[in-house]
Every structure is written in structure tokens, then in C-alpha cells.
Amino acid sequence: ERLDAGDRFNPLRIRYGIGVGNDLDGLQLEYLPEPYLVTYSFMHQFPGYDSGDATADNWMFTFNNTQRNAARRAFANVESYCNLNFQEVADSGIQEKTGWRGGIIRMGNYTMDSDTAAYAFYPSAAETGGDMWFNLLSINDQGELIGALQYQDWSYGTSAYSVFLHELGHALGLKHPFDGNPILPPATDSDVYTVMSYTGRPDFISPSTHALYDIYTLQQMYGINEETATGDDVYSIANTWGSQDAAWAIWDAAGNDTLSAEGAAANCVVDLREGRLSSIGFAVNNIEIGRAHV
Prior knowledge:
With 294 residues, the chain is an alpha/beta fold. It has 5 helices and 11 strands, in the order αββαββββααβαββββ.
């Protein structure tokens, strides 16, 4: 039975957190009924709340087409490994139960001179629940303008796209791995294992997908999509991640699959065990195989 998203998109049903170290089996996460329908929309006007850095005084800009297409890619990727069904709706529509405008998750741009590039609200029954905001005037610690995220490249492997993946993680209930309890040890508190980290990859590559721990945790929270890529599939630079320096996590539900290093311009290390990392191309530990996968 498909339950109403307004009844189910509630943090009281979710125990937030990412597993400690490599012992992912130790997670105590509550399963939700499935499939889980979550609507989303791109803001056309400021919502009925002022919270965080984004306020009605800051100006609000709708997502441009580049941002919208990137968001749709990210939602589709999450759908590929979780029993979540994201549905884009018009931001002008009114939710029947709540009376609020737009989707459960709403996205918008705002302007503020700060070092906050973006932020998101955890899922909740409040109007803010799941909303994501992106700052067009991000300032770094040296007081320099980083550049308006709205006009940056949002393709796979870019810093803007990885920011979106991070905020989407928050909108779905993931926390930072260094906050609260549990926390990750320094060895795994990095983008190699979770895009929720503030520690980048040692090769300075921006992730193209959610990482190993993110995928596993979201699957525990929302259920596993067992219908993704059930045939005999080949994963390689040419037909999957498209670059010698991409960081990509693979989720494949079934089939006799192949992880290929064909076309790699550097020596490679391939590990086909579930939950392990391979090095293909110029990067190190950049290709990940999801758990319960081999």
C-alpha cells in the first residue's frame, strides 16, 4: 500500500546517523513502509517562513535549468538504490493536507554574504521539512567571493553538484558524520565514504554520487530498490562515470555484471567485494560497490 508522503516524511520515524567505522551491520535504523512517495518543487516565490540564512529580505531566485537538471539527476540516482519515488510538482500547487505551497522538498537560491554555500532542513512535519537553500554569494574564510552556485557547472564531479548531494542527504535525514552520536573515526570521515563529511577526498575529486555509507544508510532507512540494473551490466569509464578522475558508487540489484578498467590511463586496483573500493583512472579509491551487492 502506498502511504501518503505527508504522514511518512517525519523525522520521528527515522533515527539519523551513519555507521561507525566499517561495522555497518551495527546500525540501528528503522525501516519505513515502501514505496515512499516524496514530491519536490523549485521555488518561484519565498515560502511562508524566515529561517536560517535565507529570509524574505535576502532576495530569492528560482533554480535555473542547469540546477533543475542536476537536481533531477540526483533524485533519479537516489531512486535507483532506495525505495523512494520522487515526483516533481509545480511550486504553485497547494498540498492538500498541509495547505503549503509546492512539494515536500522545495529548492531555492538566496543571497547572503557568508561562508555558508547552502543548507537544508531535516525531514519534518513542519513547512521547512526537507527544504534546500543555495547561497548565490558564498564567501570563503578569506572574505573572497567563491562564486554564485547558480551559475557554476552542475555536472557530475563538480563542486556545485557535490554540494547539492550533501544538502539532499540532509533533506532525506542524514547528518554530518562528526556531529552527535554516532560519529565516524577520522579514517572514514571523508568524502570517500560519505558526502556528508566536511573532509574532502585526498585526491581532491568531488563526488558524482552519494558514497558507500550514504547509500547503505538511506537503504536501511527507506528500503532497497531491488529492480535497478537486473541484467548483465558493464561498468566502465566509457559507459558509466565518463572520466579518468570520477568518484562514483555503483548499485546494481542483480545480474552477471562486469567492472571494467578498459581505457584507464593509469595502473588500476579492482576489488569486486561488496562494500569495497577500487581505483580506476587517475584517482584512488574512487569506484565503490554497494553492500549486499555481490
